[in-house]
Amino acid sequence: MSSPGDVTPESVGDRRLPRWVWKAAVVFWGVYLLATLAQDFIGRLGGFFLVVLVSLFLSLAIEPGVNHLAARGWRRGSATALILLGVVVLFGLFVVAIASLVGQQIADLLGNSETYVNKTVDFLNSTFNAHINAQRVIDSINDPEGPVQRFIRSQQGRVVDLSVAALGLIVQMLTVMLFTFYLVADGPRLRRAVCSRLTPSRQRRVLGAWEVAIDKTGGYLYSRALLAGLSALFHWIVLTAIGTRAPLALALWVGLMSQFLPVIGTYLAGALPVLITFIDSPLRAVIVLAFVILYQQIENYLLLPRITSRTMDLHPAIAFGSALVGAALLGAVGAVLAIPGAAMIQALAKDIGRRHEVIDTKLTTLSVKRRLSERKWARLKRTALAQGAPIVVATAGDSPRATETPDEVDSTGAEEPVFLSEDRVDDLG
Q: What is the CA radius of gyration of the chain?
């Protein structure tokens, strides 16, 4: 008979861990090792994935232009090379113009620092009733142990790092262009290879989604390029009129940065012309700042809705949120690519699920549209006459009503009517 303190085989067996604990430990550590390897793998190939993503965006953007040239008898490879060459040339001209402008301004600022300091101090003293000693500011700038000279010496060692970074950027751009060329030049072959693995019904869905991606990306690029051109034109006129240095380069900077760099692009674009104008004349800098703010309001409330409604219908809140998410994930590149990506997702999501009629309440009532002018009705009539069909305006809550019917249309209704929403009718003309 054993005492209570004795160890028996039965008690030892009871103290052993269950078998599932060992299996769970093996699974846990296996998953942990796989996750660590996957994280390291993604970290090493993050740059490659970003290059592929940018290449895919460019390929979707230039696909309509390549298809247009291919329909006119061009080979897809030649058409793709021509469009990519145009993109590279335009980007190179922009970089050269901005680099030359910045270099000239820095050299001029360093060579005439005393003159600019005196002008700035006189403006501050006379405008804000300040009492700044210009000579003390000049002595502080020229002092070898002063903060300005120390900062200049600290930046001299970064020239090599800047050159290496610029060389790496050029290599990445060439890689993007090469990927884009193959994606567009062999686009039909690539789509046939993808669709050969799918059933006919899935092929239609995939090709439909592909076409939506091309339309939305091309629409985004077209709308932004048009807005950038208008912005550059108006800013060039104003900058030339007030005598700002290098008005063309500054106008191109404002146009491109404000349109293709979301969220902060507007502020970054307006800061450079204001700063350069401030060096020559603080009063003219105030005029430039006022025009930048005024034009931004005109663009937001007049130009932007009319252009994007025809190219990329995306709610401003969704565009702003997608830009923030893209910037958080991929930086500036992600902010640019997120907006057309959100437009693609929104367009594809429209075909998912059922749609129901919305009840009319004060929370769902849209703003009342103004009545159409006679000129717009005349344009509608000409459009319907050319299509041989009556104009039908679909009003909210009512059945479509025929407003005008051309004389040439058969009254039996053999021709299909042209259904236009009130928003579309109001946008005409």
A: 32
Q: List, in order, residues 6 or more apart from 248 with CB less than 8 Å away.
A: 97, 236
Q: Is the pTM of this model over 0.85?
A: no
Dihedral angle over CA of 232, 238, 275, 157, nearest 10:
40
Instruction: Let me know: does 165 contact 41? Beta carbons within 8 Å.
Output: no
What are the two backbone dihedrals, phi and then psi, of residue 56, each rounded to the nearest 5 degrees?
-65, -40
Task: Give dist(CA 386, CA 427) in Å, integer.
Answer: 19
How far is Cα 120 from Cα 183, in angstroms, rounded to an integer? 54
Q: Name the least confident of 143-147, 306-310, 362-366.
A: 306-310
Q: Tokens for 386, please give them.
A: 């050319």
Of 293, 277, 264, 310, which is closest to residue 424 (Cα–Cα)? 310
Q: Torsions phi, psi of 146, nearest 5? A: -75, 170
In angstroms, rounded to a whole number, what is the distance separating the alpha carbons of residues 58 and 83?
11
- Hey, where are the domains in the chain? 24-197, 198-351, 374-427
Instruction: Output the CA–CA distances (angstroms, integers) from residue 122 to 114, 130, 132, in the order listed.
Output: 12, 9, 8
Q: Name every residue whose Cβ is closer than 8 Å to that of residue 57 and which is 6 or more positions away in sequence.
A: 217, 337, 340
